[in-house]
Amino acid sequence: MKFKRAIVRTPCPNMVKGLTTANLGVPHYQLALQQHADYISTLQKCGLDVIVLPAENKFPDSTFIEDVALLTPYCAIITNPGALSRKGESKNITEILSQFFNKIEYIKEPGTLDAGDVLQAGQHFYIGLSKRTNIPGARQMQIILENYGFTSSFIKVRGILHLKSGVAYLENGNLVISEMMANIPEFQKYRLIKISRQESYAANCVWINGKVIIPQKYPNAKQLIENVNYQILEVDLSEFRKIDGGVSCLSLRF
User: Fold this and answer.
1) Of the candidates 139, 130, 184, 140, which has an alpha carbon nearest to the alpha carbon of residue 161?
2) Cβ contacts of residue 149 below 8 Å, gap of 6+?
3) DSSP conformation letters of 167-208
């Protein structure tokens, strides 16, 4: 898989009111803007052209653009986020994606789905059933993916917000996974890179063109991934962590 582009959305001032379970305090907006700029620079170091969309103050969590669409080589799938405050975000991504995708599919009520719950591993997609993604939404996603030749299966998500909060596929059969998820039977066929509970935030990382982006200050996770011969790029996302955001959440990569 070769990525060429990423789409990001500038954090809005209202991000300080974003949904959170983290109990880490209120984000510092100006610092978040600097961290977001550094994140964009890191994407560019991976060889991506980055499309930066303007802030949307109506939607505090809109900088977490990954949740509103799933991008495949054959189509874009616009989701229906599970949080009520995010319901309008999906409509605003369709116009930009229509410039790159001839086919656009949609998750519709009563289905809800955050794309942070969808993990691609080759031709197979794992769909997390979480507080944000319900069974009707997951089944709609499964049908759409099957129509384009992909397989998929469901994973129950417990103890974390999204499936990808605790697992990341790094290509070549390597799967980064938080310790709390390491016993899930469906993942045993991969080479597991197990991240301790203390550094579990780093399990949300992304592979882009041979490089892996991880959050700063997780030395053990960094070493484990380096041991499998990936180049590591670190980003400071302290302000986004305060509202449950991680490395993958901040971009759509295709």
Assistant:
1) 130
2) 74, 123
3) EEE-STTEEEEEGGGTT-GGGTTSEEEEEPGGGGGGGS-EEE
Structure tokens at 90: 């999906």
pLDDT tens for 43-98 read: 999 999 999 999 999 999 999 999 999 999 999 999 999 999 999 998 889 999 99
CB-CB neighbours of 183 under 10 Å: 10
**pLDDT value of position 6:** 98
For the CA atoms of the chain, what is the radius of gyration?
17
* DSSP classification of residue 31: H
- Domains: count for the chain: 1
> Cis omega before residue 110 (within 30°)?
yes
Instruction: Kindly report the CATH number assigned to the domain that includes residue 91.
Output: 3.75.10.10
Residue type, 147: N
Q: What is the pLDDT of residues 186-195, one digit of tens each?
A: 999 999 999 9
Name the residue range of residue 249's domain: 5-253
Contact 120, 169 (CB under 8 A): yes
Catalytic residues: 162, 249
Sorted by sequence, the CB contacts under 8 Å of residue 32 that are 6+ apart come out as 11, 15, 239, 240
Strand-pairing partners, residue 91, are none
Q: Which of 147, 142, 108 is nearest to 125 (CA)?
A: 142
User: Which two three-digit tokens encode residue 131?
Assistant: 């507080």
